[in-house]
Design goal:
about 700 residues; alpha+beta; Glutaredoxin; 4-stranded mixed β-sheet; 26 helices; globular
Length: about 700
């Protein structure tokens, strides 16, 4: 019997009609495996995963394959977005096998949950250098039945390897000298050079292909670009050039949705043209802030501000739930065909726009009769500057720009009549918190653009999402709150992870710096206390992904590396340091931060893996500043607050912002416990911020 029909996860429900006797992860499945002494087939994926759909169609929907799975294994389905702890543990299996990682993740376990074989996607018949899935099932079932001693030995070998992987970071930390001083911008420049060495100088992005946005690493380039700007290098600096090129190539490519806005998860090629079309909330949450701050730093990037506005419009139109929070993802496929919802032929475009306007739209967006994707379809992109297209078409550039805007609106309206991709309606705490931070950054940038109405609208979105998270995703007394992973999951069944606590705490700090409302600071403080009490490693030098009262697994995973989202480790260190700047220091927090920052040397050597920790360390650097605004009300210091927010988006150092009630309006700037006299003159404050 398939037991997924009532699952809270849309991904699990996608498999509810499979002939496989799937279980969700839980006591029933695990008890049966132990009672019957049967191996477990663990399949981990997520709703928007293209290759998960492929394997489901080829194997899990096949009656013969399902019969083999049901006969030999206890089959468990896991949504990695609901259970990142399970995914993190068993991804190490394929890492140890030298297979990289990814989804679908397919791992075979003994009844006591020790892995003995694994991989990602397996085809139905041998191909891609991989065995056929049915062939693999037969071999592993026979090995478990007839050569159990070898299976047990392999499981023990994997357990030793998992333990060794967990210990690698400890070995690196031990090499760091005690009382390590954070070197600030100078050290960050060394890390930045390592990132720049991997940047594709022609097409932007890190590496060759596939191309992921890798927003966390790009944030380091943005910090370096600000440093170059402050030193007078301008856009000619190496980090500035690399980041500007990356942002432009991503926007021009098919990874960006040129009708609705928003970015796909990654491009399969070097030139950002062909994406897997799934859209993830976490990518767009991070890229909103990145593009917004780039637009303020470089006003000549004419595309950057529209990208921010269009992406937020997309999120509000297609991804916002009734409570003000946002859904997790949309699929790559519709009607069983990847990209069908997003791609066009010249004939379809002409039907909507007419032949003349259709021809001009096709010229601007790379649409051709031959197509650039499957089945003669074209992915919309912007391969050439608009001026070049206008010259070729013998039309004024402004006139063409206006016509293309109308054409995109008409095509979007037609696209909404198509069958849309599946939307994953999970409301995840961590990912929504990322978006709150992104909206706060965008609102600050809009303030710098001189667009107060836009600033207020984006701040309202951030505030509404935060209020909903605190109302529905946080339970218990705020003196020690309990955070849930997601709203759709039964209360108490899926407690939050370090990412949920840390990202939400940072989002509340971001809101506090925009509004000076005490409730946001109080919430961040409470979440930080909870993380220190329940997630800190016993040695104090790091943080676990799970709380100390979470389900016991074969390993308690530590939060270490960045992936598509920053690590909980990097973000909680940032939160603790920012709270310290705001006078919220504690001995426990300082000890945890100092112990964790012993990893700084490792982070400098591996900046892409530890970009969020490197950014967090900027708050402990000598250049870091804390600005305390004093006045009778937040409204009274609004002008100085706007100046600080605008200036810190142009400066490389970390600059915190707080508020105290006082009779006179002034600002005090502190660095390393040395503070200025109260400054009421904006020019004097600006000079003090530069340092």
């Amino acid at each position: 019997m398939n037991r997924l029909a009532d699952a809270t996860s849309p991904y699990l429900r996608q498999h509810a009609e499979n002939p496989v006797e799937w279980y969700p992860w839980g006591p029933e499945a695990l008890a049966r495996a132990r009672a019957e002494d049967r191996p477990i087939l663990l399949s981990v994926g997520y709703s928007a995963c293209h290759w998960c759909h492929v394997m489901a169609h080829e194997s899990f929907e096949d009656p013969a394959t399902a019969a083999l799975m049901n006969r030999a294994f206890i089959n468990i389905k896991v949504d990695r977005e609901e259970r990142p702890d399970i995914d993190a543990i068993y991804q190490k299996v394929v890492q140890l096998m030298g297979l990289g990682g990814g989804w679908p993740l397919t791992v075979f376990l003994t009844p006591d949950l020790r892995p003995f074989y694994g991989g990602t996607y397996f085809p139905p018949t041998p191909s891609y250098g991989r065995p056929g899935f049915g062939q693999l099932l037969e071999a592993l079932a026979e090995a478990f039945r007839e050569r159990r001693d070898q299976v047990e030995a392999q499981a023990e070998s994997f357990m030793e390897g998992i333990a060794e992987l967990a210990g690698l970071i400890d070995e690196e930390s031990a090499k760091a000298p005690p009382n390590l001083r954070i070197a600030g911008l100078a050290a960050l420049a060394d890390a930045g050079r390592r990132i720049l060495a991997r940047v594709d100088l022609e097409w932007g992005g890190i590496g060759r292909q596939p191309k992921f946005p890798n927003a966390t690493a790009l944030e380091l380039l943005l910090t370096m670009a600000r440093d170059e700007q402050s030193r007078g290098l301008g856009p000619a600096g190496p980090a500035s050039g690399a980041l500007r090129r990356t942002l432009e190539k991503m926007w021009r490519g098919g990874i960006y949705d040129h009708l609705r806005g928003g970015f796909a998860r990654y491009a399969t090629d070097r030139i950002w043209l062909v994406p897997h079309f799934e859209k993830m909330l976490y990518d767009n949450a991070q890229l909103v802030g990145l593009y917004a701050e780039a637009a303020l730093l470089w006003p000549d990037l004419a595309f950057a501000r529209p990208v921010v506005e269009e992406t937020i419009e997309y999120l509000v139109a297609d991804m916002r739930g009734p409570g003000g929070t946002f859904y997790s993802a949309t699929d790559a496929d519709s009607e069983g065909v990847e990209g069908k919802y997003f791609c066009w032929t010249p004939r379809e475009i002409d039907e909507v726009l007419g032949e003349a306007a259709g021809r001009r739209f096709a010229a601007a967006h790379g649409v051709s009769a031959a197509g650039n994707f499957e089945h003669g379809m074209s992915i919309l992109h912007r391969p050439r500057p608009l001026a070049d297209v206008a010259a070729e078409l013998e039309i004024a550039e402004d006139a063409l720009r206006d016509e293309l805007a109308r054409s995109r609106a008409a095509l979007l309206e037609r696209r909404y009549t198509r069958t849309p991709p599946l939307r994953d309606d999970k409301l995840l705490t961590a990912w929504n918190a990322l978006l709150i931070s992104g909206l706060c950054r965008a609102a600050s940038a809009a303030e710098g653009w001189g667009a107060p109405a836009i600033r207020d609208a984006w701040l309202a979105l951030a505030r509404a999402a935060a209020e909903h998270l605190l109302d529905t995703h946080v339970s218990g007394d705020m003196s020690m709150p309990r955070v849930l992973r997601c709203e759709a999951c039964p209360a108490g069944e899926l407690p939050g992870y370090l990412d949920d606590l840390a990202f939400l705490a940072r989002a509340l700090l971001d809101l506090h710096e925009l509004t000076f409302e005490p409730r946001w600071l109080a919430g961040a403080r409470a979440l930080a206390r909870h993380a220190l009490a329940h997630h800190t490693r016993s040695g104090g030098d790091g943080f676990y992904l799970t709380a100390d009262d979470a389900e016991v697994m074969i390993e308690r995973v530590e939060s270490q590396h960045d992936a598509a989202i920053p690590s909980g480790l990097g973000v909680i260190v940032e939160v603790l340091l920012r709270l310290e700047h705001l006078g919220e220091a504690s001995a426990g927090a300082r000890a945890a931060v100092e112990a964790t920052l012993l990893r700084y040397r490792t982070a400098l050597d591996q900046p892409i893996a530890f970009a969020s920790l490197l950014r967090a360390a900027m708050w402990a650097a000598p250049e870091a500043a804390q600005v305390t605004l004093r006045g009778p009300s937040p409204a009274a210091v609004a002008e100085l607050a706007a100046l600080v927010r605008r200036e810190r988006l142009r400066q490389p150092q970390a600059i915190g912002l707080g508020f105290e009630v006082a009779d006179e309006v002034a600002a005090v700037v502190c660095r390393e416990q040395v503070c200025t006299t109260p400054l009421s003159d904006p020019n004097a404050l600006r000079i003090a911020l530069v340092g």
